[in-house]
Amino acid sequence: MKKLLALAALSVAMISCQETATAKKDEFKTGYIDTSVLLDKYDKFKDENEKFKVKSEEMGRPLQAKGKQLEAEMANFQRAAQANGPAWAQQKYAELKQREQALLAERNEVLGKIDQEGGKLKDTLVSQIRKYITDYGKKEKFDYILTTSDDAPTVIFAKDSYNLTDKLVKLLNEEYKATKEKK
Question: Where does the record place a coiled coil (predicted)?
């Protein structure tokens, strides 16, 4: 009888533990975001990317002009080398090579600036998105919001109902559109 009573008490305790665990499990709220899709569909990111492309092209134009000028001089050099003799050709070739090296160094410097500015821009946008998602998570009482992408898949599988990407893209685009219209 004592064993039966102890078994009944143990069963009641286990059932109540299961109910508590089930209740807590049901209260647990999680979601994930596909960052590659988010960045691809976020209008502000697209706009800033286009502005950056234009700026990059503008930064590279003087370099392109210098490159074309150097190419023309090299073409003229080949024609003039036969007429002016080997001593002149050797001296002119050394000058052209030196200018080519300087142009390559300038190109690398410009590309470095473009990369640096692009990195800053992307970091700023990602930071803004992260803050927005954090605020959204707090407001909507999420326990976790995870991230995934094709490049770095941290979530291998999740039900589609946990995917917050489209909802957040819509909210971010609405907010961006509102701030864009105020300008």
Answer: none
